[in-house]
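User: Fold this; tokens only.

Assistant: Input:
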Amino acid sequence: MVEITDQNRARILVVEPHSTLRLVLAQRLRQDGHLTAAAGSASEALELCQEQQPDLLVGAELLEETTALKLAAQLRCPAMVLTARTGAEAVVALLDGGAEDVLRKPFGLEELVARCRKLLNRRTGLHEKVTVGPLEVHLLLRQVTLRDQPVELSPREFALLCALLMPPGHVRSRQELLTMAWPPFSGGPRSVDTQVLTLRRKLEQAGLGEGGGIETVRQQGYRFSLANLPEAGSDEGKATGGDGAKLSNQHQPA
């Protein structure tokens, strides 16, 4: 039974009036495996969160109707505030006002993503881990191991593997993989094919079997197959069938 569900993934709400920045932030956070929703205003954000509370709000300091801190208080979630103000006083005021973190515009996209990982890790104490046969993917730590041995992947290859494992067995089109594993407005179908090829080779070399578990589905895209993966404790290519994947949340002691 595959136990990878949306409930196991962190929920991030991006609230940013600037549409392009909003799109870029949401897509990049999705690449890290987070469930990410985006809104351009506080009212839209509240409507999106009627049924589920976000784990983290990433929002512009000043919104049309309110502020990121007031919105976070309404949603009862921590906030990373994006501010255009300069000077230490502004940052101190936001932190004293309840912000979990503050980032000044303009900021580096990778820095924001890393800060989000740190906040979620610190607040929840979770190290989400996807286990597929002998392969383990530590989502928050951004590490991949095969039979406890590290598998070195580039950031793009890691994002691509995560996309194929959410969930394993699901066919992803090239366009879906571009959206999930590439920065906005970059790459194309050939980029996907090239990265899939390099990812397959690395997983094969690590010992995951022919094709590294990644199958090409003609005229549809790619999927990560559970059919012929070696068993977790075996060095030979024994099949685990469709019951080889699960997601665990390991709670660290306080």
